[in-house]
Recover the amino acids of this structure.
């Protein structure tokens, strides 16, 4: 099994576990980001209070709306990202070693190269998995009273089958996909891809910070413990949290714009709530909401993303260690049983 495949599978496993732990926070955060009420006098709910409101008015299930496609998306995204990250990283390390043989550099991958590797892996991931996240955003932001907007053909069909005409039809993955296709066609599944591609800078910064801090920690550990560069799961957890915190603070406004574009567009009524594209969304948010609009739900996002990243890094590193250990033991046992 290749190192890239090990990292890809470990990243997918760590991402799924992190997603399951933090999903209610992610749902609330997406709703905060896509809140388009421009009335400043409206009282804002805190994260816990908003979670309680969702449970009270819509039930516990709404906190996990879109969980199934989100888990699939997380597995695909983390798997694709770590797989291609390791491939690009191996290539960068090979180039660095070649440069060292030619008398250039010390043979290690520098900060700029690490940033480029993470960016390439991130762009590949975005282009392949963006449709999944558009569907997840639709499901997270759908509420029981969101049927006020013009119904799609699929929702009309579901309403005709409903036993109770007053009860809204169940909103599942298939419904979200059909609604999105009715609204914008195939291109709708790549809504928000431009700001999402720019958002690649978030994991790029995250990995650059993580790799830099990890390298420094290992160097310091080697000096103190005479060559021992091992790090604990807790240290990985803390490094992942710090790296994600720094990246999230810098790139959060782009995340809000992306969520606004991927949520269901309001085509009737107040045109301030309808965005035709990335630039239109940015200009309308500045005009009607001010800079504050770009930071809606940021405190929730910091808690959710930092916790998720820390868990992901910790579990991923442990899974990689375990896989390598099993493969090493497996190879050793095969050699032992092989006849001389």
């Amino acid at each position: 099994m290749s190192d890239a495949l090990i990292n890809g599978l470990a990243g997918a496993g760590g991402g799924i576990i992190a997603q399951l732990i933090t999903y209610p926070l992610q749902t609330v955060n997406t709703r905060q980001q896509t809140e388009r009420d421009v009335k400043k006098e409206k009282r804002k709910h805190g994260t816990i209070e908003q979670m309680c409101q969702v449970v009270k008015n819509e039930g516990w299930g709404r906190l996990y709306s879109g969980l199934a496609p989100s888990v699939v998306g997380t597995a695909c995204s983390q798997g694709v990202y770590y797989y291609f990250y390791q491939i690009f990283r191996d290539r960068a390390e090979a180039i660095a070693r070649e440069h060292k043989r030619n008398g250039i550099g010390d043979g290690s991958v520098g900060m700029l190269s690490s940033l480029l590797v993470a960016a390439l892996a991130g762009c590949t991931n975005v282009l392949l998995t963006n449709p999944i996240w558009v569907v997840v955003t639709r499901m997270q932001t759908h509420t029981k009273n969101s049927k006020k907007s013009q119904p799609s053909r699929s929702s009309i069909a579901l309403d005709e089958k409903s036993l109770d005409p007053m009860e809204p039809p169940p909103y599942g993955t298939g419904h979200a996909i059909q609604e999105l296709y009715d609204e914008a066609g195939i291109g709708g599944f790549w809504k928000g891809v431009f700001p999402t591609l720019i958002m690649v800078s978030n994991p790029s910064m995250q990995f650059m910070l993580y790799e830099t801090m990890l390298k420094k920690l290992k160097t310091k550990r080697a000096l103190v413990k005479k060559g021992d560069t091992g790090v604990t799961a807790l240290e990985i957890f803390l490094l992942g949290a710090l790296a994600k915190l720094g990246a999230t603070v810098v790139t959060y406004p782009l995340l809000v714009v992306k969520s606004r574009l991927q949520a269901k567009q309001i085509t009737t009524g107040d045109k301030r709530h309808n965005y035709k594209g990335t630039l239109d969304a940015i200009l309308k948010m500045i005009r009607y909401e001010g800079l504050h609009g770009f930071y809606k739900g940021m405190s929730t996002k910091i808690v959710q993303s930092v916790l998720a990243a820390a868990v992901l890094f910790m579990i991923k590193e442990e899974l990689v260690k375990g896989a390598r250990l099993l493969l090493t033991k497996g190879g050793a046992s095969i050699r032992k049983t092989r006849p001389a």
